[in-house]
């Protein structure tokens, strides 16, 4: 367990003085009456009056300057290449799916995962020849429907969007369920088959990203090797030329978790070879005029254990200057976890801090100041946990990850996966948002890239402020998003995660005192509790109005000076209006 919270910062003398004054005044005013100077024990059944009883935590924020400034695309997304194999790629033109993705823009869209290193590009439009096996009615009627849909889309100008018939979606869900069993078998056996990405596939992928306001990052196959183990660039060059001809604005990365290649395919790629491969890719990009200034990210190493750290260290030594940002992955647990309460374990939540420290130490040793991205992040390994990773409970990990990563200077967090793959997705196969989607949407609407320091003090009869804050109450603060026109510049957004099984109260102090607050309290909807797959905002269930319309995210106004009451095991966002914070005005 870490000794200090990632969100607790040193006290200033001004803050400490104001805190002492506030506590003394409140205790004196509540403990003594005008008629007696002695303490009066409350009668049985009565509430004990006074500030100490009704307040657990005093909270203030440093409004003078941000401690971090992150990428505008801090919360970003990922799609797994398995959507080519199970057929969902053909449905990325869905108007509803594009709307949901657009709700999380601006963002990057990384197209990558374990199957990145089994992708082969083929420059042709023929769909049926490269489609996976399926029942007879897929090969006869279903394929014809896809082709007819593509023909209709080709006639559209600009964004190519479709409303797919329900029967067509139902057939696709049946096909995807069958294919997912094949993909799971590959994953368990660690033997993967190649996936062909055609020109048509790339067109559909780029159309989705472009229509949704996302910037596409395309993962390239690093296991396409020559006999001497050097990287074979033939497929990549063909892909680059096609993308340049279509003027597709794409950024690139090479490979996925290269530290795991030996266990996956029995062939290792060491850090020196990987650095040479990335240098070769940079040269290749510069040789294609349209991509000569394209961004390149990598090496997308796995969790920073011994092998991954050694590979990252060697890569940064030899090719640290080649990449525009350093990428790595983190997963919190394996697929054997089977309780919702496992997502609330504080030791589990705090593992990320240690992992970030390891990675940034290596990066700064070779290229100080280089941006670090957390890619491929999800709440559980192996595609998630059925009936858990897509529930409200997983939101504690997700929102805490965003807060921890922001405080520690991670420039971008890429969520695996936006749609389809496993159980960690944000949108299900009926195109309905899951709890983590709603958390992400509220985060995008309210939280900006400027991170602020938080000052917290615990007020208890037996004070244990360090333990309470670090373990069970997570508090983070940012400048409110500049894209939200409901709030003027200078507003502050605080988001709080209450892991306690009881209600906790937070009193705004210092610069936050007597300010009007807008509350966005997210709680599970229905009788399933932490296993709920629906979310309510301030008591109202969140549902899409139609394929193109989000529900109104209505805040609850808390009067100036009112204590924030956090229900047990909930997540809340609080916008401090009209505070005119200097750190947020610029």
TrEMBL record:
InterPro entries: GH (IPR017853), Glyco_hydro_79 (IPR005199). It comes from the Eukaryota. It holds the Pfam family Glyco_hydro_79n. Residues 1-29 form the signal peptide. Keywords: Signal. One of its GO terms (cellular component) is extracellular matrix. One of its GO terms (molecular function) is hydrolase activity, acting on glycosyl bonds. This is Heparanase 2. It comes from Amphiprion ocellaris. The gene is HPSE2.
């Amino acid at each position: 367990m870490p000794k200090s919270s990632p969100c607790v910062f040193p006290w200033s003398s001004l803050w400490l003085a104001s805190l002492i004054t506030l506590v003394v005044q409140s205790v004196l005013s509540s403990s003594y009456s005008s008629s007696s100077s002695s303490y009066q024990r409350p009668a049985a059944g009565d509430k004990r009056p006074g500030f100490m009883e009704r307040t657990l935590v005093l909270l203030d924020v440093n409004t003078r300057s941000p401690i971090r400034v992150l990428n505008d695309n801090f919360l970003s997304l990922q799609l797994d290449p398995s959507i080519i194999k199970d057929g969902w790629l053909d449905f990325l033109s869905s108007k509803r799916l594009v709307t949901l993705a657009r709700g999380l823009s601006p963002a990057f869209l990384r197209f990558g995962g374990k199957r990145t290193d089994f992708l082969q590009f083929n420059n042709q439009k023929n769909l049926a020849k490269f489609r996976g096996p399926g029942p007879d009615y897929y090969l006869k009627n279903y394929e014809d429907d896809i082709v007819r849909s593509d023909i209709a889309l080709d006639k559209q100008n600009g964004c190519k969007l479709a409303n797919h018939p329900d029967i067509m979606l139902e057939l696709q869900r049946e096909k995807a369920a069958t294919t997912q069993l094949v993909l799971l078998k590959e994953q368990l056996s660690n033997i993967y088959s190649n996936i062909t990405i055609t020109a048509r596939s790339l067109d559909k992928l780029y159309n989705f990203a472009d229509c949704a306001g996302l910037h596409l990052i395309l993962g390239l196959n690093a296991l396409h090797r020559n006999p001497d183990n050097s990287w074979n660039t033939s497929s990549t060059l063909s892909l680059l030329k096609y993308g340049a001809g279509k003027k597709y604005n794409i950024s690139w990365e090479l490979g996925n978790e290269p530290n795991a290649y030996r266990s996956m395919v029995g062939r290792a790629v060491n850090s020196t070879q990987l650095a040479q491969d990335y240098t070769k890719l940079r040269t290749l990009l510069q040789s294609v005029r349209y991509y000569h200034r394209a961004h390149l990210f990598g090496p997308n190493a796995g969790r920073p254990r011994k092998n991954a750290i050694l590979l990252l260290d060697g890569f940064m030594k030899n090719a640290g200057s080649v990449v525009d940002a350093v990428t790595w992955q983190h997963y919190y647990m394996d697929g054997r976890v089977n309780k919702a309460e496992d997502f609330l374990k504080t030791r589990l939540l705090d593992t990320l801090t240690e992992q970030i420290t390891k990675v940034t130490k290596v990066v700064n040793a070779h290229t100080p100041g280089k941006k670090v991205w957390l890619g491929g992040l999800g709440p559980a390994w192996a595609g998630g946990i059925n009936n858990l990773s897509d529930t409200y409970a997983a939101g504690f990990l997700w929102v805490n990850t965003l807060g921890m990563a922001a405080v520690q200077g991670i420039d971008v967090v890429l969520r695996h996966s936006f749609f389809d793959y496993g159980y960690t997705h944000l949108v299900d196969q009926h195109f309905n948002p899951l709890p983590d989607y709603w958390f992400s949407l509220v985060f995008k609407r309210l939280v900006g890239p400027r991170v602020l320091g938080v000052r917290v003090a615990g007020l208890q009869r037996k004070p244990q402020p360090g333990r309470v804050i670090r373990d069970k109450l997570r508090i983070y603060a940012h400048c409110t998003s500049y894209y939200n026109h409901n709030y003027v510049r200078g507003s502050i957004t605080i988001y709080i995660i209450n892991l306690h099984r009881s209600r906790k109260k937070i009193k705004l102090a210092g610069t936050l005192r007597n300010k009007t607050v807008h509350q966005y309290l997210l709680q599970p909807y229905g009788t399933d509790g932490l296993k709920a797959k629906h979310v309510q905002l301030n008591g109202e269930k969140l549902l899409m109005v139609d394929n193109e319309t989000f529900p109104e995210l209505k805040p609850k106004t808390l009067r100036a000076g009112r204590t924030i009451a956090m229900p047990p095991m909930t997540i809340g966002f609080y916008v401090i209006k009209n505070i005119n914070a200097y750190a947020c005005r610029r």
